[in-house]
Design goal:
single chain, globular, 51% strand, mainly beta, 4-stranded antiparallel β-sheet, 7-stranded antiparallel β-sheet
């Protein structure tokens, strides 16, 4: 059970996004000299064009990439050099990425396995601006803020079998490891996808949730969000990612971040100076 009273701890590596896959973290990293800083109240937002990002894999004591015992880089980070991506997302459906031209790619050999895979394969789709990976689906936002879901992803069919359209216009969407889906629309309203789970990938419809967020992140440690002031909020009743649970309220948590990622018993926050923290 996650206890929200725990404080944030700073991770020594700087990055500009963090993503989770079992006991592994995948990240993107650029030199700090390439970033532009804009003041926003008591924090600073980073304006980055992500022209030359690199893929990094963090190897914990419980995870070795592809079973290898090869030495890794500083602080456990190992660089992958075969392709650069603008965004990475990971989950039970594997490792997926968006390239600079907003095309969608998946990492072969990663779906349904604790592996980073062995190669990238392009998936035909409209240009996309963000993705979130669940147990057997990939939830995508296109450039018009419409939701497109890549369905029936498995180790036997790692690129999925088709596309499903979901109603609504959203700027943030997140699917948990159990297939539970949360979203924030273009007016900062929060939505929960009724019935969405591993066995029913797209659910039956949206339910509006009281509150206002700009970003939402769902995972084993529950549903977390950022409001318009970048304040962290936790959705009560969602710890451990229970089925058919939309929670009961929002609890403010100390800290201001520009992005959150939710893991198993941990939540990671990205600070405006590209340092990231966990609790």
């Amino acid at each position: 059970m996650l206890v929200v009273q725990h404080s944030w701890k700073r991770e020594s590596k700087k990055t500009n996004k963090v993503f989770f896959f079992f006991s592994k973290t995948i990240s993107r990293y650029k030199n700090i000299e390439d970033f532009k800083i804009e003041d926003i109240g008591s924090i600073k937002r980073i304006d980055d064009n992500l022209e030359y990002p690199s893929m990094l894999v963090y190897e914990s004591s419980k995870f070795a990439v592809d079973g290898s015992d090869k030495a890794v880089g500083e602080n456990g980070w190992r660089k992958q050099t075969d392709r650069t991506m603008r965004q990475l997302a990971v989950g039970g459906a594997g490792v997926w990425g968006l390239a600079k031209d907003n095309t969608l790619w998946f990492r072969g050999g990663s779906a349904g396995k604790a592996s980073i895979g062995d190669n990238w394969t392009k998936v035909q789709s409209a240009p996309l601006k963000s993705i979130s990976v669940g147990p057997n689906t990939v939830w995508c936002l296109d450039n018009d803020n419409h939701v497109q879901v890549r369905t029936e992803v498995s180790s036997a069919c790692p690129g999925g079998k088709g596309w499903a359209s979901v109603d609504g216009d959203y700027k943030s969407v997140s699917v948990s490891g159990k297939g539970h889906v949360w979203a924030v629309d273009t007016t900062d309203r929060v939505w929960w996808r009724k019935g969405a789970k591993t066995e029913s990938a797209t659910g039956s419809g949206w339910k509006c949730i009281a509150g206002s967020l700009t970003k939402v992140a769902a995972g084993p440690a529950g549903v977390w969000g950022l409001d318009a002031k970048n304040q962290v909020l936790f959705r009560d009743g969602t710890a451990d990612d229970p089925d058919d649970a939309d929670g009961s309220g929002w609890t403010p948590v100390d800290g201001k971040f520009i992005q959150l990622a939710v893991g198993n018993g941990h939540v990671w926050g990205l600070g405006a100076n590209r340092e990231f923290f966990y609790r």
